[in-house]
Amino acid sequence: MSLKLLGHPLSICTRRVLLVLAEKNVKFEFQTIDFLRGEHKESSYLESHPFGVIPLLEDGSFKLYESRAVGEYLATKYRDDGPQLLPPTEDVEKCALFRQWASVEYSQFSPLAEQLLMQKMFNPMRGIPCDEPLALQIIKRLEEKLDVLDTILGQQPFMVGESFSLVDIFYMPMVDMLYQAGQRQLFEDRSNLKVWWGKVSTRASWKKISA
Prior knowledge:
Elements: E1 3-7, H1 12-24, E2 29-32, H2 43-46, E3 56-59, E4 62-65, H3 67-77, H4 92-125, H5 132-153, H6 166-180, H7 185-188, H8 191-200, H9 204-210
Helix pairs in contact: 1-3, 1-6, 1-9, 4-5, 4-6, 5-8
Domain GST C-terminal: 91-211
Enzyme class: transferase
Keywords: Transferase
């Protein structure tokens, strides 16, 4: 089997790629990289991924990292398999909107979500107490972004428009981790985001990678 994914099943970034593979029903080999033991910093791994993070995709001799880039590569290569996760290449406007909404996830949502997870989940796991005043500041800023997304999702069922896409996948593992960190109110208190999460989290692909 030429397609191989190196990562960890609990990693947010790895789960993005696993979701794409599940949606496309692509067969692949999975190699767990134990980042808690520092395997992502070992020389053998750094030869393929010089930044030493996960995941890493190997497709024969071709190697690719950064989960969003890997997801787009797979969605493009296997465009004819499973649901369409990308806009048609000939539709310039739809492609531009796709890029716009992908950028919103990357620049407006994920940085704040990561900061909040650090305070509410990852720091406590390391024995570092949550900085509650800082967490409240992050929540306030994140809520402003989510209010905008909630308004948009009142006009369309998915992040890019009428169809489930790669951009929805980009959000899903991070949203799930926020639920696990006790921050469900961020989504449950916003009716359109709540409906969106209800739709995407019942997809067979999500159930498969969450089993």
